[in-house]
Automatic annotation (TrEMBL):
TM region(s), chain numbering: none
Taxonomic source organism: Sorangium cellulosum (Polyangium cellulosum)
Keywords of the record: Coiled coil, Kinase, Phosphoprotein, Transferase
Coiled coil: 193-242
Protein name: histidine kinase
Enzyme class: transferase
Length: 611
């Protein structure tokens, strides 16, 4: 018999195979088939190794079998299976350098089979094996590389109990299981890579889903925060409206009392000075309270404009007149630059005057003595469809950062407690609100601190010419004001101070006044002697409020000619509507301005004796 390494087999030193050749060949073919079938089902590298070892060892009559795999960097080998050695040897050789002096490592390193037919050769070439197996034990060794497309991925090896020759059948058999093993390793590895890939993809998908969930939660949280902010803002507006209303109530009797002192005739200089101070301070207070109310109404969308045709030039001139003395007194030069022809707008004159007035007030407040203020309207160009009103001053000016936020409520450049110029920071927010309600816009400019400021309101123009009716209405109102004379007036008001001071004022003007402090009393007094005018508070104690009084009295024929006027601290548009619906002819907001009341009384039908 000839061994595959070309050496003659010596019958004396090498053991003959136990089976006759053809039987051995058949047996090995069966083994190979079994290996192929088992490897096809192997899911892990360990399963592959044990299949190879379990089938290979009996087929070859080997006593030790090992399958090892190369690390990714090719520097070491790891045993996937190791059978036929003591457990401690198995553990000691779990992983070892690829240059270890053992046949399996050599085969992996060189990519070529290592065949050691005799014990002597083994002891000589591989002293490590001699130590592990015993110099007097075992014999031949065969190690084959696991090669895939000329790439070595590991090796397998068998040790035999005695020296033996390896013929072509042996060689072909070991080569064939080495090839099968290499293929199976590759398949399992690809499988592992694919599974890792799938697991990785699943993990990324899960991470994405988790991120999506996080984002959804974040959006929900943001929405909640936003809603909470909006709610807080609504509550702030409600609070401001309520605060302004509550502050307004005590102002009414105060204002009336001051009017009374004035009407009482000449007073001592001290009383006169005190009255002037009170008058002015109540005026300030009323303005602050009004601003607060207005701003809360604007932000709640509760202001509706009473639009009419307005000559902007005339309105600007009249507003300027109100501020001229203020500026003159401080030595601030006031310049008016108005176009000669009227500029017609569809606007609410009271609100527009309020806006221009706020700008003039600021110009006055922020310009030191000796400076100058200029109110100008450039002649509008019809094609542009808009007109601009500008209030420019030479005052303290503003830094760019301040310019950005001055139209926000409560925004002021000077936020120190020791602010020398006072105010709540509402003026410009009101200007913006009012101007935007008119479909216009407002902007501020300043060259910087100490270099003056200019605020410009731009408003849409109104195309058509003025109607004669507007002019006539104004004239009628003036005539009516002149014809006011004594009326029978009933005041229904639960606040005794407010009722008394108003009564005294009206009596001073020559009216016959009676007072009731509840709805029921009011109705009773009215029925006894129907008055010309009933001034009725809305918030009355007891079962009947002001609306109830109006509904009841309006239905009575004796009260047909009676002017029913609602008095409230609230000046909301809704309240006006409610008052109208209940039957009130007019609605006055407390504190009642004398002029307003007189105008209202003057507009009543002429008295019988003067008719
Ligand atoms: N003409 C101006 N020159 C310089 N700064 C101005 C001028 N007008 C407004 N500002 C700045 O803008 C801020 C806001 O003005 P705004 O009229 O809204 O409030 P205010 O005048 O401080 O208070 P309020 O008008 O409520 O009495 C002012 O505090 C001031 O810092
Ligand atoms: Mg202001």
């Amino acid at each position: 018999m000839q061994s595959f390494d070309g050496q003659p087999t010596s019958a004396g030193s090498v053991a003959e195979a136990a089976l006759p050749r053809h039987e051995r060949v058949v047996e090995r073919l069966l083994r190979l088939q079994r290996i192929t079938a088992a490897l096809a089902g192997a899911r892990t590298l360990t399963e592959i190794a044990s299949t190879i070892i379990d089938q290979g060892m009996p087929a070859l009559d080997a006593e030790v079998g090992v399958v090892a795999i190369l690390s990714a960097d090719g520097a070491s080998l790891r045993n996937l299976g190791f059978k036929g050695v003591p457990v401690d040897t198995e553990a000691a050789w779990a992983e070892y350098p690829v240059d270890s002096p053992v046949p399996v490592a050599e085969a992996a390193r060189t990519g070529a089979p290592v065949i050691v037919p005799t014990r002597e050769e083994r002891n000589a070439r591989y002293p490590v094996l001699a130590r592990v197996h015993g110099v007097e034990h075992g014999g031949a060794v065969a190690a084959f590389p696991l090669v895939l497309e000329s790439r070595t991925v590991g090796s397998l090896g068998f040790c035999f109990p005695a020296s033996r020759a390896f013929d072509d059948d042996d060689y072909a058999f070991i080569l064939s299981i080495a090839q099968q093993c290499a293929l199976a390793v590759e398949r399992v590895r690809w499988h592992e890579v694919a599974e890792q890939e799938i697991a990785h993809r699943r993990a990324s998908e899960e991470a994405l889903r988790a991120r999506e969930r996080e984002l959804t939660a974040l959006v929900a949280e943001l929405r909640q925060t936003q809603e909470a902010l909006r709610e807080a803002d609504r509550r702030k507006d409600d609070f401001l409206a309520m605060l302004a209303h509550e502050l307004r109530n005590p102002l009414a009797p105060l204002l009336n009392a001051v009017e009374l002192i004035k009407a009482a005739g000449p007073a001592t200089p001290i009383v006169e000075r005190a009255r002037t101070i009170m008058d002015r301070q109540i005026g300030h207070m009323a303005r602050l309270v009004d601003d607060l109310l207005d701003i809360s109404r604007i932000s709640r969308g509760k202001i509706t404009l009473s639009l009419e045709r307005v000559d902007l030039v005339e309105l600007a001139r009249a507003t300027a007149l109100d501020y001229r003395s203020l500026l003159d007194a401080r030595g601030v030069r006031f310049e008016l630059a108005l176009p000669p022809a009227p500029v017609w707008l569809q606007a609410d004159p009271t609100r527009l005057a309020q806006a221009i007035g706020n700008l003039l007030q600021n110009a006055n407040k922020f310009t030191d003595d000796g400076g100058s203020v200029r109110l100008s309207i450039a002649p509008p160009h019809p094609a542009r469809g808009a007109v601009s009103v500008e209030v420019a001053d030479t005052g303290i000016g503003m830094e760019p950062a301040v310019l950005e936020r001055i139209f926000e409520p409560f925004a002021q450049a000077d936020q120190s407690v020791a602010r020398s110029r006072g105010g709540l920071g509402l003026g410009l927010a009101l200007v913006k609100g009012v101007v935007e309600l008119h479909g216009g816009s407002v902007r501020a400019a300043s060259a910087g601190l100490g270099r003056g400021a200019a605020i410009t309101i731009t408003l849409p123009l109104c195309a058509a010419a003025p109607r004669a009716a507007d002019a006539r209405r104004a004239a009628d109102a003036r005539r009516a004001a002149a014809s006011a004379s004594s009326r029978r007036i009933l005041i229904i008001e639960d606040n005794v101070d407010a009722a008394d001071s108003l009564r005294m004022l009206l009596e001073r003007r020559g009216h016959a006044v009676s007072v009731a402090h509840s709805g029921d009393d009011g109705v009773a007094v009215a029925r006894m002697a129907p008055p010309d005018v009933i001034l009725c508070d809305i918030g009355l104690p007891g079962a009947m409020n002001g609306y109830g009084v109006a509904r009841l009295l309006r239905a009575e024929s004796a009260m047909r000619k009676t002017l029913l006027v609602a008095l409230t601290g609230y000046a909301q548009d809704d309240d006006r509507k409610l008052a109208r619906a209940a039957g009130f002819d007019a609605h006055l907001t407390k504190p009642v301005a004398q002029a307003m009341l007189e105008r209202l009384l003057a507009e009543l039908a002429p008295l019988p004796e003067t008719a």
